[in-house]
Prior knowledge:
This protein is α/β, with parallel strands linked by helices. The protein folds into 2 domains: 2-255 and 475-489, Glycogen Phosphorylase B (Rossmann fold, 3-Layer(aba) Sandwich); 278-468, Glycogen Phosphorylase B (Rossmann fold, 3-Layer(aba) Sandwich). It is built from 17 helices and 17 strands. The chain has helices spanning 18-32, 108-125, 143-149, 177-182, 187-190, 207-214, 223-231, 239-244, 281-292, 314-326, 340-353, 367-376, 392-398, 409-414, 439-455, 457-468, 475-489, and strands at 2-6, 36-42, 52-66, 69-80, 83-90, 132-136, 160-165, 173-174, 205-206, 217-220, 249-251, 301-305, 330-334, 359-362, 379-382, 402-406, 432-434. The strands form 3 sheets. The chain has a 9-stranded mixed sheet with strand order 3-4-5-2-1-6-7-10-11, with helices on both faces. A 6-stranded parallel sheet has the order 14-13-12-15-16-17, with helices on both faces. A hairpin with a 2-residue loop joins strand 4 (69-80) and strand 5 (83-90). The longest helix has 18 residues, at 108-125.
Amino acid sequence: MYIVQIASECAPVAKVGGLGDVVYGLSRELEIKGNCVEIIMPMYDCMRYDHIWGLHEAYRDLWVPWFGGAIHCSVFVGWVHGQVCFFIKPNSGDNFFNRGHYYGALDDHTRFAFFSKAALEFLLKSNKRPDIIHCHDWQTGLLPVMLYEMYKWHGMDHQRVCYTIHNFKHQGIAGANILWATGLNNEGYYFQYDRLQDNFNPLAINYMKAGIVYSNHVTTVSPHHAWEARYSDISCGLGQTLHLHQDKFSGILNGIDYSIWNPEIDNYIPSPYNLESLAEKAKNKKALRERLLLQDNDKPIICFIGRLDDQKGVHLVHHAIYYALNRGAQFVLLGSATEPSINNWFSHEKYHLNQNPDCHLELAFNEELAHLIYAGADMMVVPSNYEPCGLTQMISLKYGTVPIVRGVGGLVSTVFDRDYDQNLPPEKRNGYVFYETDTHALESAMERAIGLYTKFPKEFQALQKQGMAWDFSWNKPGNEYVEIYDHIRA
């Protein structure tokens, strides 16, 4: 099968969140299964070019129709850790992708509408006819609209679209000018509730809604998050649209790349280990303490890795720090804040706790340090307000770091409470789960985890091994996506 992934990110060259990891990880798995996979993304000026091998111009004169005229583009191609990636570079005064950042510009809706148009124009002019076009998030939501309303009449009538939603919070809202820019033009036709019109603003179009309406199948990144999107406010207003298109909507759990996140072969940790040699994990714990100048003692290390924002339950992250310290544990945090107020809050806490020998707050992101924390910590808190899939808890399990999570989204699909989960036998359970957003719920789960560590160390080690035995690789999700591709092709 010939599959083209079209997205605004691909790890590690352009990565802001989990989207980049998914695009790369899924593409790699699909190729392992014998498919031909290519990736199309914007050519940002701030990409990690050191992760691209053999970058060269592949298509010199791509003229993309835009607002009644055309914008000249060049298309480059290179290999990103074995995956073929095409990079679209517009040569215009708009500087769509020469901003020094990936997102956050006032004209993001214009930038990515152009990218979607340019990707289709490249497929058309280069005579590429994939069996499946797999689009991701709001940035490519208009692509299936243009494919089925325009490009199918120019020789692209056999292509089928799978559309994956990674985060419902950002949907892409724009006015009628985008219709005229892309050549869709007919406002009366597209400004209909059953097409592109935003569900709450009759004067706006919604890119994500467009992707849902026009694609052949829609997925989100875990089965439980798909349920939440249908039956709670987590879909941010798109619940009715998902209800109307429920027959083509499903959830597939993301995987993680075990060639990167695997304590047995991890180059960033001093002592590799696996399920049979779990005792070696203690050496990484000692190395973590030495690196962060923590006191060397018998206390458990509890950690948090991730963005510091409302989605991640930042108020509970803050509470977890002090609860851990008060309960005789150590705490390590690695993450950067997305808002100035949160950054100021945690900068104050860092200053306050700077001399505490049992605590270290690293207000940045450091990939190398993340690996060492996963390998050296005993427990990981993931108290998210919402979490479509989550990779942190799956990586933690692989490293024998017991997750303590809030029961939402993909966290419910991957972590099963040691004491209370009735759906799995005790020997399959792998962590601790709490459900409410208050501090008492978090404390209850942390208390059970700390208590097991301190009073029943052999049982805690058994729980670590049960977590390490779970397989959250891309193998199963890869098979599920292939089934969807075959279904929509048929």
